[in-house]
Amino acid sequence: MDAPADLVGRTHRVLRAVAAHEPGGGTTTAVARGAGLPRPTVHRLLISLQGVGLVEREPGSDHWVLGPELYFLGVAAGRRYDVTEVALPVVRRLAVATGESAFFSARRGEETICLIREDGAFPIRSHVLFEGARFPLGVVSAGMVVLAHLPDREIDDYLSRVDLVADFGPQHGAGEIRRHIAATRKQGYSVNPGLVVEGSWGLAAAVFDRAGSPRWALTLTGVEHRFGAERIPQLGALLLREAHALSEALG
């Protein structure tokens, strides 16, 4: 029998794996693969979670989706943690001003989670980021800029433990990440030159809490030809201005 901590951890992994397959949901096999757990274990957990409304099956299919109970819990938690009401006008303003897709992400442990997406008028868009998408620190421009603004000791500890190359390729080796950190600190904003999906570029600026820690990030993404050498500094300056104002508002 699983220890309580193991059971909670596995349940969390299963719920995250289900969330990664939204909005259409995922099969038991797909959820097990995403959670990194044996299929029989995941099936038992999904049945238990279904019983309390945390997951449910899509009618007429074998796909699992997040259940209504998570929504009600989220509404209750939102009264304490939701910052999107303050961030949404900023994200919309960025999308309108630039024509690109604009995002607001939050740091959660060693990941960034996309909370808001607003598409601009330019018809060709990047689809790397979407609401609910999670990436490790150091990956995509939001993860880069948050990592770059952490203390050196935290960066050293993180890079000594994680292997980003396995999932995101050699362009995410520790040496490359450190070069991005140095460039981000110099510019103030991060640049992702198509490192996750070829041709999909992104810029991000960190948003800080009252203690000066990078808790959130504002991001602009688009196709490569929209992020030329002359335009990147303009977009970066705009992101930094909006991020500074949002830091003050959230602080």
TrEMBL record:
SMART domains: HTH_ICLR (SM00346)
SUPFAM superfamilies: GAF domain-like, Winged helix' DNA-binding domain
Keyword Transcription regulation carried by entry: yes
Sequence ranges assigned to domain HTH iclR-type in this UniProt record: 5-68
InterPro entries: GAF-like_dom_sf (IPR029016), HTH_MetabolicPath_Reg (IPR050707), Tscrpt_reg_IclR_C (IPR014757), Tscrpt_reg_IclR_N (IPR005471), WH-like_DNA-bd_sf (IPR036388), WH_DNA-bd_sf (IPR036390)
PROSITE patterns named in the record: HTH_ICLR, ICLR_ED
Lineage: Bacteria, Bacillati, Actinomycetota, Actinomycetes, Pseudonocardiales
Name recorded for this polypeptide: IclR family transcriptional regulator
Superkingdom, natural source: Bacteria
